[in-house]
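User: structure tokens for this one?
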Amino acid sequence: MTAPRRPRTPRPDQTGAPSPDRVLEQHRDTLKALFPVPDPAQLYRPHRSRSIGGTVFGLLLLAGLGGLYAFDPGWQQHDYQTAIGERRSELLADGSRIQLDADSHLQVRNHLRSRRIVLLSGRARFDVAPSRWRRFQVDAGPVQVRNYGTVFDVERRGDRSEIRLWRGKVGVRVASRDGEQRLHPGQQLLAGTGPAQQPQPIATGSGEWTEGRLQFAQTPLGEVVRALQRYHQGAIVLDEPALATLQVSGVFDGDHAATALALLPEILPVVVHPRDDGSVHITARH
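Assistant:
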């Protein structure tokens, strides 16, 4: 057996201390002689119990990850809410942007493989950042809107919701109803309880609510009052149910809801009565 050669004295580095890599390199032959490497056949000879244990562990890990992916657990939730007369824009962590109308409330729920919005009340616009593996969907009561890379509005009206698509594609599902309705840009759909409806063209100017302009074209007064109520602190009351069907056309400034209400007698056979408690009552003009 050849004696290992005597190592050279290591040269110090710039700080005066020998470099660890240089020391190991200079003592390599000595270390090999003192600690010979075992035969690879012996080193990697399989052990039955270890092999079985490793296989079982791998299968359990794979099953656990698969179940976790299928279950899609949630890990984060944020609430966003606007007051009467307040509009708000929020940029989400994934790059999507949400614009809330006045008097609206929604929750953003981040899940492992999905991004879920729960619209509890009001209206919002969604400008969705694309993601290959985390879908984006909006739940509004029994209505579910699945995004396919789009900009769209959802307005909740109890168990019914109106969806307006501005860009891209969305699919609309209703609980207890089979199938999905697809919308194309420029279409709107009123979905929820009741008979299924077909998509309709979006009314001109209906997307300008993000700037406070409320435009109506042959819209029932009941819906106009509901829209103005988001911007008016006091209750707006139609004293006669038949008034809700009167048709309204025009553009109103949501930020000045009281002024908009005062203009109604100029276009409809109604009288507007402001009350001391801040409420406004609308009656028929006889």
